[in-house]
Amino acid sequence: MLTRRHLLLLAGIGLLIETPVLAQDRMNVIATFSILGDLLKNAGGDRVDVTTLVGRDGDVHVYAPTPADAKTLALATLVVVNGLGLEGWLDRLIAVSGSKVPVVVASRGIHPRQTPDATGSNRLVSDPHAWQSVANAETYVGNIRDGLTAADPAGKEFYETSAAAYLTKLAALDGEIRAAMASIPADRRKIITAHNAFGYFGDAYGLQFIAPEGLSTQAEPSARDVASIIALIRTQKIPAVFLETITDPRLLQQIAAETGAKIGGTIYSDSLSPPDGPAATYIDMMRHNARAFQRALTS
To answer: Structure pTM?
Structure first.
């Protein structure tokens, strides 16, 4: 016969099993920009509250932290950064905040592409846009999962399960992009973009990207660089140029008008779109860009 004490004990066990993680029990985790924020949400699920410093349609290259960011950082349990020199402003922000918060470098273990410095010197610098390869994004997710587990050991199984489910989706996305890019004729696999953000995509999926701006949107292209790209488009018959959401479109519009190359659409490099846009998540962003490339280069 079940006594009142037994019933209370069973009810308590039921609460432990059924009750979801409450908001006050969640870790407060910061991602430096929107793409990282989406990867973090998929790995952390409802065990984390994610704050993104550089929001949707924001430019992480030129971001200027605010006093509110320092306060946000001071209250965080964990910070997830891209690394590879992307967030040049972050060390100063952490110093100002006085925070000793652990930092997870999502790109850890990725061998970075090296590209000439935009200043015109012979110095090579690391390309920070590693997420433009889905295989690299999978590395990001693994590093984020491990960082969450280190900060919240009780959630280890949850983070492993969440990350595994998301990695399955990323593997399917990678196959989808490879199939789409395989449909593009070999002589039409060159693309002009605003800044040099798609090198990892090109290496992974067999396209060549050429940009008048360097790795950062802070770098202004010279007249000589623009003239060289116009000549390249004409001599190699590059079919399309693509605008980016975080850059001024006028330069590429001028290049397209002078060369006759068509504008293949607007793509997303360093930021997600608003939630009702075509690149609301990392998966949406990569799929949108791949389809835009495929349409422009096969028609």
So the answer is: 0.84
